[in-house]
Specification:
One of its GO terms (biological process) is TTP catabolic process. It is built from twelve helices and no strands. With 270 residues, it is mainly alpha-helical. The N and C termini lie far apart (61 Å).
């Protein structure tokens, strides 16, 4: 067994964390829960931790961000520990792979290409390099390599961007708006639950396309809308509490009026 001095080393860094994970996954002396985990069982936690990092950034809470980045790093350590046990890869080989990728994708920094280019040109060059990498990985179709595990709105935008690169795209936003109206009408006309499910999905896909044409991030826009709804509803609830009541003791008309009052107050405060 490795020296337990590393377990308590306050400046042990990544090696300390890797050691802790090996101890947790030890089949004889480790934690039963940790030993039972697999790539697939850990994946939902990985996604959750990434969102918690984004949430800490959105709130501007740098102390929380430090902790959340640690939680996200733990997910990488977890997956690489499983990979090492199965003879697939190690933490260090994963780190080497991303290092190689960053060097290869930045020839204007690490190679002999000029840095004297616009951000737009650098983006084009980046996509060209990525396309070559996909070709080497036998991902030759336009939509190959767009991850299935992405949030649906984010994946929709990425699929649309890929299709646009080969010319499958509306030339202006007005045509997207026309398609949006068409999808709303089709949703209204849908009779069965299955048909409504399909048409609603089509509507959301077009909404993602509209966001792309407008230069918006639909995932972020919806997160912001969620935050605004939460903030305003909390304010409505607080106003009811001043009268010693809860939302369930109110009604829609009153809460709607309070909602409008909250909106006016926000406008004045701005």
């Amino acid at each position: 067994m490795e020296n337990d001095d590393l377990l308590h080393a306050k400046d042990g860094g990544i090696e300390r964390l890797l050691y802790i994970m090996r101890r947790l996954r030890d089949p004889d002396t480790g934690c039963p829960w940790d030993i039972e985990q697999s790539f697939s069982s850990i994946a939902p936690y990985t996604i959750e931790e990434a969102y918690e990092v984004a949430d800490a950034i959105a709130r501007g809470d740098m102390a929380d961000l430090k902790g959340e980045l640690g939680d996200l790093l733990l997910q990488t350590v977890y997956h690489t520990a499983i990979g090492e046990e199965e003879g697939l890869f190690t933490f260090h080989s994963v780190a080497d792979a991303i290092s190689d990728k960053m060097v290869a994708r930045h020839p204007h920094v690490f190679g002999d290409q000029s840095r004297d280019k616009t951000a737009a040109q650098q983006t084009i060059d980046w996509e060209t390099i990525k396309a070559a990498e996909r070709a080497q990985a036998d991902q030759t179709r336009a939509l190959d390599g767009v991850a299935l595990g992405l949030p649906a709105l984010t994946r929709a935008v990425k699929l649309q961007k890929r299709a646009a690169r080969v010319g499958f795209d509306w030339p202006d936003v007005e045509q997207v708006l026309d398609k949006l109206r068409e999808e709303i009408d089709e949703l209204k006309e849908a009779k069965s639950a299955a048909h409504r499910h399909e048409e609603f999905g089509d509507l959301m896909f077009v909404m993602a396309n509209l966001a792309r044409h407008m230069g918006l991030d639909p995932e972020q826009a919806l997160r912001d809308a969620n935050g605004k709804f939460t903030r305003r509803f909390n304010s409505v609830e607080a106003k009811l509490q001043q009268d010693g009541r809860t939302p369930s003791q109110s009604n829609l008309a009153e809460m709607d009026a309070l909602w409008d009052e909250v909106k006016r107050e926000e406008t004045i405060s701005e």
